Amino acid sequence: MLDPPPTRKLTIIAKDPGLRIGSADGPMVFTQVAVPAEILAKGPTGYRIKVVDYNATERRAYLDGQDYQLASGVLVDPFAPGAGEDLLDPAYQRRLLAEPNFHAQNVYAIAMRTLGAFERALGRRVGWSSGGHQLHTAPHAFAQANAFYSEPDRALMFGYFHRDDGTPVFTCLSHDIVAHETTHAVLDGLRSRLTEASSPDQAAFHEGFADIVAILSIFSLEPVVAAAIGEDGVIAQGKETIKLVSARRLKPAAIKKSILLGIAMEIGNELNDGGRGALRQSVELTPKNGKELRDDPDEHARGEVIVAAMMNAFVLLWGKRIAALGKFEGDRHNLASVVEEGAKVAGHLLTMAIRALDYCPPTDLDFSQYLSALLTADRELVPDDDHQYRPAIRASFRSYGIITQRKNCDEEGCWKRLSHPGQLTYARSNYVAMTRNTDEMFRFLWENRNVLGISERAYTEVLSIDQAARLGPDGIMLHETVCQYVQRVDLFGAEFKSVLGAERPDGMKSNDRITAYGGGVLILDQYGQVKYHIANRIFDGPRQRARGQYLLDVDQLGGAGIRQKMRFALSHQQRMGA
Question: Which domain holds residue 179?
Fold first, then answer.
């Protein structure tokens, strides 16, 4: 049997079934994407994604599955175009849309591709929060206009519904939705405490971040982006033909309305009789409306603020690169060059967005802290910033009312480095063990608790220690160790002021139970020295009072009940129905 190559190509439906070429009745855009090569079991089932195609509504399992390698060991794409077919062939497309096994492949490939984007950006393997190695995925989970990540089931669930004429609409065929739900699962593995009830920003961050990853990841599929933009003629250049696009199609207003920057166009249209457009088009949110949504209790609506900030920065940066390109007659650009520049900008922003997670506190995350993490992560790897990504991001976030914290950040909005590194004690710690063993890392934290501001009264747990190796634009590897720890104190409402140093929230009873959380991230350099300590300290009275008030308002003071554990299912169902 042949050894598999590093990657293999699998066919998927690109972006969304709502993306058509030429007209509303034109062919959809299918493409082939590279995913890690592995000997897949039927499902398909691999070492990270296990497709379990069971329909709970119809109580039906699709058991036939599909073979992904020949007897000789050659890896194959069972849904690649056959003889006389191509990716734009209408008959070929209809055949795949009617094939449940293709739906399963579509979900597997997009989920693996999304996971790969995280692992490339972070420079390490990423695990699921369940502790297991495989995430279950159900392409036809139920007959309902919903899709969600289920923590208790360690699974991604994709629903479907029917149009008035009886034809089905599958959420598993939307690249946006699959990437969005996979991002929830990956983020939960990286920052497990971010799914807990904490603050409006923390709940909204999960939704907004998942949209950012879903949108930006599309731009690496250059044929898809070209099809979405469209062309306005061609020109002969020797033996080559250059496709052209009018400059009017590339104005900021036109780009913002594009399907490329929206989420789930087909689903959005069908849920509102064709008049809705994309399910979410956050980039069109104005700064004025964005500032109003900063106080919206709905996590999807509030999450759109950071999506709008990031996407408007993308439009600005892409526009600057397009403006630097030459033009052909008729005020037209080389379409391939336009797409290539978009892929560069989106790729850099996606990498920034993901790498920022390592520089975020593990509990009570707010938008301003994520902005600081964005800027810090990028400066660590790309200090020169020749293309001015960081000023564009700062300005865009500021326009939506998101600014960095002056106390903990420098003049560029990045986290300040540890101000007293010389006061830390390393003598009684084993560096090699400290970067691999949670007990050894806890000893280091305990030895330095006074310098780091870690309370000895709270229960402390080191959640993870991760090694990261990232390649900078200069070709030099940046090696870091990322340690994540949390602290907790369980108390009654009567103890709130005496323990946490702030008046108890309005409406909190003396016998109400509450758990106060704190925690931080240590970033160690290649020599094992701490360069950043990014923390939300547990004895922070104003923050704990705000958190307690929020928990009272959303009826989550008693802890994570079933409603909290299934919050992705419930919130996504509410959003679909809105």
Answer: 7-190
